[in-house]
Amino acid sequence: MKKAGNRGSEPADEERRRENLLQQFRRSYGRDAQFVTRAPGRVNLLGEHTDYNGLPVLPMAIDRNTLIAGAARRDLQVNVKNLDSSFAPRSFELAKSIPAFAAGDWGNYTKAAAQGLALHAGKTLRHGADLLVDGNIPHGAGLSSSSALVVATALALLAANERHESPETLAEILPGAERYVGTLSGGMDHAISLLAEAGHALRIDFFPLRTRPVPLPSGYDIIVCHSLVQAEKSAAAKRHYNHRVIECRLACRLLDVALGTGLPRDLTMLGDLATLFPGRSLSEFVAYLSPWLPDRPLSLAEIATYIGAPVDALQVQCQVPPGLSDAFAVVRRARHVLTEAERVGQAEEALGAGDAGAFASLMDASHASCRDDYEISCREIEDLIRASKDGGALGARLTGAGFGGCTVSLVDRSRTAEFLKHVDRHFYAQRLADERHIEQYRFVFRPRGGATSQRLEAITS
Ligand code: NG1
Question: Could you tell me the residue ranges of all domains in the chain?
Fold first, then answer.
């Protein structure tokens, strides 16, 4: 966890970080950096685990980011160093197929960007780069530090090759690229990091990618609090995350059968229901599953029997990765995803109308659905939500993939100090040995703009 106050970093801090990064680059590589890229993290306000289902999300970019200073190389070598010494230097070569470092290695996020670009841009990536990273997004917090590293690396490799790709194109390429690390992730994190608009949240729709700025209620703060439980997606959280993705794919197979002749084509994802049945409310479709199937986790063999297909065929069709437990709570997962997508639409309307109260109720409903139907909360998150609501949050929910990480609260700005005091006393003081560290764990964020790439001097190679 990075040290910082309870504000996100201010522009002056960022300027200092940038100057320091350029100096350290010179010291480390013995030459000047030619470019600096910057990719922000994000907090998702609503729409959790909807993106990989092709349904909308409502995140905003935060004032914590990953900065990379870099310079092009004549060969295909990529050297990556990090100002945080807990991340050891890594090197690899640009190639058509880049073999991964060991699972969980931070360097795999930089390789993910390189591999994604190599597949997209092919032979035109002729130059490797010397790169130096400085990130201040807390890790394993559901604030997208991994995707910020992928985005900043991709921009750096493009700069080294004097290539330009639009943020929209990168937002289409990079989610697939990040799957290199083994997470079946959706497209929210890269899209918001690349396309964010300062002062606004962004409604993002997928397949095709579309974005719409959404105003935030004036007079309120967006406060993010860490549960002190790390949810690193390189570890157990990755297995839990992938399990949810597979449960949604299995729900599609069951809906295919339940909808029978009512369905013009098979569902590839739950979001297809919105395209195939425009004008119908998504939550209606839960009723096609719930009276038919028991509201308990089903084994793959049971699901195959309901569908009338062989188990191995189902396994192949839904690309079930090895190592998942054989218990799939399809009804609950579908109910969460379909109702959550509706809440995003309602939230956009509420925010457009400046109705903070209605938006806050949707945040609360989203949290209940994440906890009960998607089962991605944990005891610490629940304690933190309780402390947040008791401390005056109008609405509070977990944010990001879950299984730990952070909560996000909407708080009347006149009550922010009181809120922080309450959460400090009733959550952090009981868990942190040294209360002076509390400020490293909760942040008042303002919505920031998207990623940037700045050329400092001509690339001479
Ligand atoms: P975080 O919270 O950064 O682990 C993950 C996915 C998103 C989205 C959310 C849940 C990655 C890179 N990101 O985000 O695509 O599915 O969970 O809404 O896996």
Answer: 11-216+448-455
